[in-house]
Specification:
- The structure holds two protein chains of two kinds.
- By secondary structure, chain A is α+β, with helices and mostly antiparallel strands.
- Helices cover 31% and strands 23% of the residues of chain A.
- Chain A starts with a helix and ends with a strand.
- Helices cover 74% and strands 0% of the residues of chain B.
- Chain B is built from 13 helices and no strands.
Chain lengths: 538, 317
């Protein structure tokens, strides 16, 4: 018996010795962390293999970004709508131009986009010498092909019930003809549209790209290299990128869904960037190895009073409920520190050029709240997403604030699909309040679907004046007139006492100290980096 | 024997069909609309209706069931509602990844459990038994995720002895050494999590077997303790363990959800969990049917192995 035990133990000893030998011999994996942080490039076997390209420069540069999701084995650049699919599209394909939240244009494939005086047509002029990643020329034919295909399958480029027509004028000029004036047309035609190669997709039944068997051809800063199910997507720089070849050779989107593991990977120096929620940020604060970037995705968290619920029919009562709330306290509970959010009083994010705070703010006033709610319901039910820790903290704060005003709140956390089902149904009466949040476009017309009863009316508003003003705003091209109109809309939406915006929460990106060019690349909603080609290592 | 096997397989077919019906019915009874997983807030009703049509969500439930069953039989597992990707491709990569992790772990735990269980059982209430039983108690009390995190923190992060994410270092997919280095930590965690339960099972069986008359007879004939334990008791202990082995078959699909998730092992566990969370029901149904089928196959294998291992058991019926 003793001999057998010794045998078993010796097997473990050999295994341990082998492990130690492996870790001593290899300079990859976790062992490379410090080194890779210092020299800015050598990473894994690939890096050492490509050392022949120049050992002095540290070989091939690899940027690893931790993402918490998987794009899947196939990808459709036309219909991608999830964050990871859109990030992949953004790396491989390029739009004609991008509009930042402050309204400035970043021209990518296009050189200019000019509206006609009557606002019924737009002329897009392409840059000269554009090429796809396979070396083929990118022309107006590709632009026309892309927009026509979008119109064949969706109504994303419709004004009213008619599509925007696309015509080629010459190899570098495209005309967009609108059926009616639409101030948001420029945004509709902008960077949600990945320009697709006609020579690849023409004649194909669908735009699905099998990432295991195919290599998509695009005009973005990077070219798709490899997809490993559940592990990563790898990109190599595109030599033909219109804004110049990217500074970093390889980009890897590493899929680590468990946040503790992702954090440990980041802290071990095995990745260069990741999005960190405020409650997990502590190890990175005042840490010389990392930089923290807070930026706005234009996400507006809000509380909605359910106007379909019997308890919320009385406007005075709703006003009382809103007076009981304190947006600063709610956001502080959710995001732990004021540097992770900006207070806001309108449905637009604080950095939108149409934003105004000259609206009814429903500033916290418990006495007013008690007075206005004295004849109303004393028990309310609040719906939120149970797996979202920030929602949960917000819900607890709302519960304690309303308790002060004499209202008991029952917290009801549901999972995301159930939440989507409930909030998309404007007839639901089981809940009196909802916690929510949205990221819309930069043009205020994109918010119409939340508040206009003539559109999707996601927040269940029924105010004809609001509907009319949204229509008027979209049909007006004059900037100052539009500003006036949307000021009024913001005021009216607030006065309805259905919707209580909390502000704009910021997204926190942690990067390794060696990463440079984040400001030039610009941090943007969804994709994180506006122009990946501008990222570089120090 | 062959007749018995064929008979059992034929019996399994309606059971498998029943599983598919139950899976499909339960998913359809869930109080959610699959369309919500496919839509975004900026979609119009027209677009939502078009998607509903495209995915056949407007068809009656029996029509949807028959279409789904036909596809499953052809090896077409459909598309994920969320990522719109082919589930077949994901399963082809993820199931082998999970098997590569679970199979060696379970077999190791199984072998160790037999040895440790027999030792503990034969040394009942002595220090060896107390030590093994105490270790089992600790093993049962320690949550897998905690143990995994501690291992990862110490061996991976602090001492930098082993890599702690994924199955391979990027670019070293063909290196066996690299794979083994990634494998050690999740493997150890799984062995530790499977071991206590199995050991206690073997220990209990050994104790009951040691009370049997044949042990007394063997002792009377002067057989050594080693002989009694490993030649006679072990054989009888292995019989119920064969059943346990068959019943463990579904674990090859869903047996390492937590460990895979913590070590970012690209297996089926995390994929399944995420699909359940997002109500990506084509994936949920496929995996349920797979693991349900494995339960039936496992039972079938247990019965057959039982017949083979124990000559005293005649063919039933």
């Amino acid at each position: 018996m003793k001999k057998r035990l010794i045998k078993v133990l010796s097997i473990f000893a050999v295994a341990a010795a082998l492990t130690a030998a492996c870790s001593g011999g290899g300079n990859t994996g976790s062992g490379t962390s410090k080194e890779s942080l210092q020299n800015g490039s050598a990473k894994g076997e690939e890096a050492s293999d490509s050392g022949k390209n120049g050992a002095a420069s540290g070989g091939e540069s690899v940027f690893t970004y931790i993402v918490q999701g998987d794009t899947g084995n196939s990808f459709n650049p036309m219909t991608a709508d999830d964050r990871w699919g859109l990030m992949l599209a953004h790396a491989v394909y390029a739009p004609a131009y991008h509009i930042y939240s402050d309204g400035t244009y970043d021209y990518i494939l296009a050189q200019s986009m000019e509206a006609s005086e009557d606002g019924l047509s737009y002329t897009m002029k392409l840059k000269d010498g554009l090429k796809w990643s396979d070396g083929q020329p990118l022309t107006a034919d590709d632009i026309v092909f892309t927009y026509e295909k979008i119109n064949e399958s969706t109504q994303n480029l419709y004004v009213g019930d008619k599509p925007i027509k696309v015509e080629k004028q010459d190899d570098t000029t495209v005309i967009f003809k609108l059926p009616a004036v639409s101030a948001s047309a420029a945004e509709m035609l902008s960077d949600e549209v990945s320009i697709l190669p006609k020579h690849i997709f023409e004649g194909r039944a669908s735009f699905d790209v099998n990432l295991i068997e195919e290599k998509p051809v695009g005009a973005g800063p990077y070219v798709f290299e490899e997809y490993k199910t559940g592990e990563y997507i790898k990109f190599k720089k595109n030599p033909y990128y219109v804004k110049g070849e990217a500074a970093i050779d390889t980009i890897i989107y590493r899929n680590i869904e468990q946040s503790d593991t992702a954090n440990l990977t980041m802290q071990a120096g095995e990745a260069d960037a990741m999005i960190v929620p405020p409650d997990l940020l502590e190890p990175y604060i005042d840490n010389e190895a990392f930089e923290i970037h807070n930026y706005s995705e234009g996400r507006v968290p809000y509380i909605r009073l359910n106007s379909a619920s019997e308890k919320m029919k009385d406007k005075k009562y709703r006003e009382g409920v809103l007076y009981a709330l304190d947006r600063d306290e709610i956001l502080l509970a959710a995001y732990t520190d004021r540097k992770f959010y900006e207070l806001g009083y309108s449905f637009l994010p604080f950095d939108n050029k149409y934003y105004t705070d000259k609206v009814q703010k429903w500033e916290h006033d418990v006495e007013k709240a008690k007075e206005l709610t004295k004849d109303g319901a004393k028990n309310l039910k609040l719906c939120y997403i149970s797996e979202d820790s920030m929602h949960e903290r917000m819900a607890l704060t709302i519960q304690s604030e309303l308790k002060e005003a004499g209202i008991q709140v029952e917290l009801s956390g549901v999972n995301t699909p159930a939440y989507m089902k409930l909030t998309n149904d404007n007839t639901v009466t089981d809940y009196d309040m909802f916690i929510g949040g949205y990221v819309m476009g930069s043009d205020p017309d994109t918010f119409a679907m939340l508040f206009s009863s003539k559109k999707d009316n996601r927040l269940n508003f029924h105010n004809e004046e609001i509907d009319r003003l949204f229509e008027e705003g979209n049909a007006t091209l004059d900037e100052s007139k539009r500003k006036e109109i949307y000021d009024k809309v913001q005021k009216l939406v607030s006065e309805e006492a259905i919707y209580y915006p909390l502000g704009t929460n910021l997204r926190t990106l942690v990067t390794s100290k060696r990463l440079d060019g984040v400001d030039e690349a610009k941090l943007v909603p969804i994709y994180t980096f506006g122009d990946l080609s501008k990222l570089k290592f120090k | 024997m062959l007749r018995y096997i064929v008979k059992r397989i034929l019996q399994a077919v309606p059971l498998m069909l029943l599983i598919t019906i139950i899976c499909f019915a339960l998913i359809n009874l869930a109080p959610y609309d699959a369309i919500d997983a496919l839509t975004t807030p900026d979609m119009t009703q027209v677009e939502i209706d078009a998607i509903r049509q495209e995915y056949g969500l407007n068809d009656p439930v029996p029509v949807q069931y028959i279409r789904w069953l036909k596809n499953i039989c052809r090896g077409e597992f459909g598309y994920s509602l969320l990522s719109h990707t082919k589930i077949k491709y994901d399963l082809m990569v993820r199931i082998p990844a999970t098997i590569k992790l679970i199979l060696p772990s379970y077999l190791t735990a199984y072998t160790l459990a037999i040895i440790l269980g027999l030792i503990a059982g034969s040394c009942r209430n002595r220090w060896q038994d107390k030590l093994i039983d105490g270790m089992c108690s600790v093993g049962l009390a320690v949550p897998t995720f905690w143990f995994a995190m501690i291992m990862m923190y110490i061996l991976g992060y602090k001492l930098k002895l082993l890599p702690f994410i994924g199955m391979h270092t990027i670019g070293k997919e063909n290196s066996f050494t690299d794979y083994i280095r990634h494998f050690i930590m999740p493997y150890t965690v799984l062995v530790i999590s499977f071991l206590p339960d199995l050991t206690r099972y073997v220990r209990a069986l050994a104790i009951s077997q040691l009370k049997e008359d044949y042990v007394l007879v063997q002792r009377a004939f002067g057989a050594s303790k080693y002989e009694i334990l490993f030649k006679h008791v072990a054989r009888n202990v292995l019989l119920p363990l064969v059943t346990k082995l068959g019943m463990a078959l579904p674990m090859l699909v869903t047996g390492a959800v937590i460990t895979e998730s913590i070590f970012s092992w690209p297996g089926i566990g995390q994929y399944f969990l995420k699909s359940v969370d997002a109500l990506d029901y084509p994936i949920v149904m496929d995996i349920l049917v797979l693991s349900g089928s494995l339960v039936i196959i496992g039972n079938l294998l247990s019965d057959i192995l039982y017949c083979i291992v124990d000559p005293r058991i005649k063919e039933p019926g």
